[in-house]
Amino acid sequence: MRRIIRRRELVADDVRYAGEPADAGTRAVQPAGEFIAALSAGGAAGAGDASGAGDASGAGDASGGGSAVLLAPPDDVETLAPHLSLLQLIVVEFPKIGEGRGFSQARLLRQRYGYRGELRARGALKRDQLFFLARCGFDSFDLDPAENLEAALGALDAFSVAYQDGSDALVHVQRRASPA
Amino acid sequence: MYRYDQIDRTLVNERVAQFRDQTHRFLAGELSEDEFRPLRLRNGLYIQRYAPMLRVSIPYGLLASKQLRMLAHIARHYDRDYGHFTTRQNIQYNWPALERVPDILADLASVEMHAIQTSGNCIRNITADHLAGVAPDEIADPRPYCEIIRQWATLHPEFSYLPRKFKIAVTASPADRAAVEIHDVGVRLRRDAFGESGFEILAGGGLGRTPIVGKLIRSFLPQADLLAYLEAILRVYNRHGRRDNIHKARIKILVRTLGAEEFTRQVEQEFQAARAFAPRLTAQAVEHMRSFFAPPPYQVLQDAEPAIGSVSAGTPAYDAWLRYNTRRHKVPGYRVVFVSLKKHGEAPGDISGTQMDALANLADRVSFGMVRATHDQNLVLADVPQSALADVWRELDALGLATANIGTLTDMICCPGLDFCSLANAGSIDIARQIHARFDDLDYLYDLGPIEIKMSGCMNACGHHHIGHIGILGVDKHGKEWYQITIGGSSAAPAALGEVIGPSVPKEQVAETIARLLEVYVRERRGEDERFLDAVRRLGIEPFQERVYETNHSPA
What we know:
The complex is a heterodimer of chains A (180) and B (556). Chain A has 180 residues and is an alpha/beta fold. Chain A has a single domain, classed as TIM Barrel. Helix content of chain A is 29%, strand content 20%. Chain A contains 8 helices and 9 strands. In chain B, strands 16, 17, 18, 19, 20 and 21 form a 6-stranded mixed beta sheet that branches. In chain B, strands 1-2-5-4-13 form a 5-stranded antiparallel beta sheet.
C-alpha cells in the first residue's frame, strides 16, 4: 500500500491512478481534460462514465463526495477553475526532476480560484522540494517511492522563516518591514 | 550596506543545515547524481573538470571588509589560496572538496553571506551598477531595490524550479554600467513627471548561444508594483517557457516566440489578475531598506586642484593610474578607485588570499570598510579621499593590483575556460596571456582609448563575448582550439551585439588578429575621440575583415 504525507501525517493512500488495479484504492483519479470534456458532454454526473478507468460517482469519499482529477504540467488551471466546487482532490504531476509548472498551478488554484480541497503533489519529488510545495498550497505529497517519509515529514519545517507570503504563517519580509 | 536581522540569519543557517543534510545523503548514496544536481546547483556547487567549483553570492557586488577577509580565509583554508571574481559580481573557488562545502557555507553564514541560487534554474544573484551610490549620473541609489528583490527571490516558493536560469540587473544611471539590456529582466530606475519613483522594465535579453537584446515591456512601473510585476513576468515564464529543450528554455526565447507585444500583454494580464494576492512594496518598506544604504560619514572636503587626472601629479606611473583607474565621485574631495584584477600573467578576475586580506585592511583605512566587485571582474574602493590617493596607489602597486589598464584593451573579461570549466570548448586564460604579452606597451594602449575585449570559452557566453567591442569565442574544431571574433558589441545603452568578422582563427593567431583590427582602427580613426566601437559602427565590418583575412593569414 502506497503511503503519502497528508496534512503533515503519514497515511495509507486511498487513491487509484489510471492503470492501477481496482483494489489499489477507492478514489479514482481522472485526467483533468477528460473530466472537463465529460462535464461539457453530459454534466457532472456523467463525468465518471466518460473515463474508462475512472468512476467519478464513486470517487468521492463517504464524507462529502466530489471528484478527483490529475493535472499534467501543461494543463491550464483556468479551464478547471469553473468546476472546482465539484472536486475534492486535485493531483498535480511532477513527472521529471526539475519540473516547476505545478508550483504555479497550485498557487493559482489556491489564491486566484479559491480551491479548498486536497491539493496533492505527485511525482519525481523528494523531501527537498516539500518546503516550496507546501508554501504554494499543497497539503498532500506522494513523493518518490525511494524517499524516507519519516525523514521527509521533518523537511516540511526545514525553514522557520521566509521572505515571501505563502500558504503558511511564516514571518515574511513585508510583515517585518512594516512593524505594526 | 544591508545588515542581517534574526530572520535573515535564521534563514541562511537553516539553509546550511539543509545543504549539510543533502550532501550527507548524496555521499551516503541516498540521493542519485540526478537528484543531487539541482540541489547542489542551488547552492552554487558545480562538479567541474578537476574538482567541484563553488560560486559564492555577492549581492550586487557589495562586500564589507569583514566579508572579504572571510573570502580570503576560505581561499586559504579550503582552496588553493585564490578566488575568481565573475561577471555576475560573484566569486568562485575552483578547488573545494565536496564534503567540506557545508563548512564553507557555515563560515559564509557567520559573515552574512551565502551561495544560495548562484546557479541552477532559479533567480540568480541580483546585479547592479558597481558605482551605485557614488556615481554622479544616477537618479537614486539602486541598491535598496536590489536587496528587496534579492530577499523576494530567495527561496521563492513558486519560482525555484524555472525552465532555466533567470538573471535580473538593476541600474539607475543612463550610462548603464549593469548591462541591463542583456538580462532576462532589466530594471531601470525612473521618475515620472511628478517625481515619483518607478521603473522601466525590460525583458527577454540574454547572451548564450542565442544572444538577444531585451525588449522594453513597461515604460513606467510605480515603485509599489515592483515585486508584483516581477511575479507576473516570472509566472508567465514559469508556465509557458519551454522545458523540452535546454537551449530554448530561457525567457528570451519565449519573448521572441510570442513577440514582445504578446508577451507584454500576457504579463500585464497576469499582473492585473494577480493584484489581490501580489506583494505590494510599501513606501515604508522602501524607506526602511534605504536606511541601510545611507551614505557613509563623508568629511566635508574640497576637490583637489588642479582636477585629478588632467595634470601630472607625481611619477608617470602614478599619473597613468590616476587617469585610468580612478573615477569622479559625486561627493567633493573623494574619488572612486578601481582595483585592477587584470595584471599581465594573472588570469583575469583572479585574486589571492593575501591580496584580499590586504585590500580589506586598505578598505578599512581609506574607504569606510567597503569593497565592490564589478561585472567586468575588477574591484572598487568607492569612497577614497583624494588626499589618500597616492598612498592607496603605492599599496595597490605593491600588491600587484594597480595595473593602470581599466577600460583599456587589456582590461579583458574572461571566463575560466577550458582550464577549469567542463563546458568550455577552448581556453580563455591562455588567450588573455597572449593578448597581454602582445600589447604590453601601455602607451600604445592609452593611445587606442577605451576598448572592451570580452572572451568566452564556449557559446554559453559567461565572458559576454557578444557585447565586447571585440568579442572572442572559443570553439572546438576537430579537437583543436579555435576562436571566432566579433566586433561592434556593447553593453552600454543602447546595447548591441557584435558581428562575426569571418571564419574563426587558430589559437596562436588571436593576438595577431586583434592587432590587425587595431591597425585598421588607427588608420581610419577620426580624431582621438572616436573610440574603436564608434569607428566600427561608422565603417561597418568590411575594412576590418579585409585586413584580417589578407593572404599569409588565412584561417581554414
